[in-house]
Design a protein that fits this description.
Elements: H1 8-20, H2 23-27, H3 29-35, H4 41-44, E1 51-52, H5 62-65, H6 68-74, H7 88-112, H8 118-132, H9 136-144, H10 148-157, E2 159-160, H11 176-191, H12 193-202, H13 211-221, H14 232-256, H15 261-268, H16 272-279, E3 281-284, E4 287-290, H17 296-302, H18 310-341, H19 348-351, E5 354-363, H20 364-368, H21 372-375, E6 378-380, E7 392-393, E8 405-413, H22 417-426, E9 435-440, E10 445-449, H23 461-470
Parallel strand pairs: 1-2
Antiparallel strand pairs: 3-4, 5-8, 5-9, 6-8, 7-8, 9-10
Helix pairs in contact: 3-7, 7-8, 7-10, 8-10, 11-14, 12-14, 14-18, 15-18, 16-18, 22-23
Length: about 475
């Protein structure tokens, strides 16, 4: 780009574009396609209002609600299934979902480290949350697998994904250059086929029986020219795995070394799954627990080449020890951060607040000619719990030439409770008693019917507003 064309705004645009051009974007496409909701959930996150995602469930159309069991199975915690996750199709969806969440983690890190301002990615992030995290199962996956950075980002953009009270880290404006290095290194990491083969092996994808045991023996026998029990094909495979393990250590330690401790913990969240595998930890319902030595001791030996000079060997061993020490330190910081962030569930007082107001059986002309049309998140001629898909008024025979109108359901965020109250206070003058669903943050729904009190001609706005907000 010509330097004369540079502006601060264009620089931010280029940085946001760089976050979306990594290999994770293509890898995430399968997850977006699999999770695409029939409900226009994006409309509910299209504004600046606070959105508890659990409250979106009552707004879903029947086709999305019917997927509950399927999604719960695909996104189950692997430690709760004695067979683990073995179905190739499920693994592909989960891997793709991981990549989609990686992009959200990178967006959060970019904001945390001052690489981009929140406003530059807020709309994009809310759109992706609407596409990926509308289901209980997907949000539980985020919780089960410690995607803390996704929870931080949710808090920043005003979306509650049921992760508890996660306070996002303060923005460090001085970290932009270090984040640029992280992003560049993560792109190289993601594009490295040798590392990719090692990561699949680390994730228990093996091509022969007892391959992990044979590979461990192979590493311990190196640099012997003729390791026992190894065919030529296996030797080639094991050499690629050894190279991948070496690059795993080199690239991650290179990425972590220049970071501050707090940055190391948050950047390390990107790699927490692989850290756990490498250092012999297993994720369970109670957090991480040590189950063995992992691959770190074997890889350490494999990284030592045969050298003629003892001094050169000593220097190289010290370098390897420093790199492994950097990774061990990063993993300790990540585990500590995860454990501190596993917060208690919210109290009923917190989760029972109204999130949405739905006015049912609203005439289309009434809606279009009222202030409601300026604040509604969505309006549609149907509602999952009320009435046939499309209704017209009047429903019976009418005189020739009489106009028919659609009856709508209008959904309005609680931010505009006063606008809803003002409309309801005036509406009974027409002789129709409005029916309203108050959708709470936890997904529960209360039905209200606003009937005119005996002897009255209007409602008091304050009274209506009190009734709406008191449904919690």
């Amino acid at each position: 780009m010509n330097t004369s064309d540079w502006t601060p705004e264009r620089e931010i645009q280029n940085r946001v574009a760089a976050l979306s051009k990594g290999p994770w974007t293509n890898h995430a496409k399968s997850a977006f396609a699999f999770l695409k909701p029939a409900t226009p959930v994006n409309l509910y996150l299209a504004g600046d209002w606070h959105v508890p995602m659990a409250s979106v469930r009552p707004l879903l159309v029947a086709a999305d609600v019917a997927r509950d069991d399927e999604l719960a199975h695909v996104f189950r915690a692997h430690w709760k299934d004695p067979e683990g996750v073995r179905h190739k199709g499920e693994m592909n969806v989960r891997d793709s979902f991981d990549e989609a969440l990686t992009h959200l983690q990178l967006l959060e890190l970019a904001v945390e480290m001052g690489y981009v301002p929140l406003d530059a990615i807020k709309e994009q992030a809310r759109q992706q949350f609407s596409e990926l995290l509308w289901s209980d199962a997907a949000r539980k996956f985020v919780w089960d697998y410690d995607y803390l950075s996704v929870g931080y980002l949710a808090s920043r953009i005003g979306v509650d994904i049921s992760q508890g009270d996660l306070a996002p880290p303060p923005v460090n404006e001085a970290g932009a250059v270090r984040f640029a290095l992280v992003l560049a290194e993560h792109v190289r990491w993601s594009n490295d086929e040798v590392i990719d083969e090692w990561l699949h092996f680390l994730d228990d994808y093996v091509v022969t029986r007892n391959e992990q045991v044979l590979f461990q023996e192979y590493l311990l026998s190196r640099p012997s020219p003729t390791p026992k029990k190894v065919t030529v094909r296996q030797r080639d495979r094991f050499e690629r795995l050894a190279a991948g393990a070496g690059q795993f250590v080199i690239r991650l330690s290179t990425l972590m070394a220049p970071l501050r401790e707090d940055e190391r913990a948050h950047v390390g969240l990107l790699y927490s799954y692989w850290f756990a595998k490498f250092f012999g930890y297993e994720r369970g319902a109670q957090g991480y627990r040590k189950v063995g030595d992992g691959w770190a001791p074997d890889v350490k030996i494999a990284l030592f080449p045969k050298m003629d000079s003892d001094d050169d060997m000593k220097s190289y061993q010290e370098s390897v020890a420093r790199r492994l020490g950097t990774l061990s330190n990063a993993w300790d910081l990540v585990r500590n951060l995860v454990e501190k962030s596993r917060v208690k569930a919210r109290t009923p007082e917190r989760i029972a607040r109204p999130a949405w107001f739905q006015i049912l059986d609203l005439h289309e002309s009434d809606f279009m000619n009222s202030p409601l049309c300026k604040v509604a998140a969505s309006w549609q001629p149907q509602h999952a719990k009320h009435g046939p898909p499309v209704r017209e008024y009047p429903p019976t025979k009418v005189k020739a030439g009489a106009k028919k109108e659609k009856m709508l359901t209008v959904t309005i965020p609680q931010t505009y409770a006063k606008v809803v109250a003002e409309y309801l206070a005036k509406h009974p003058e027409s002789g129709r008693a409005p029916r309203v669903n108050v959708v709470l943050a936890n997904g529960k729904v209360s039905r209200m019917v606003f009937k005119m009190p005996s002897g009255s001609k209007t409602f008091q706005i304050g009274s209506v507003l009190g009734q709406l907000l008191a449904k919690a």
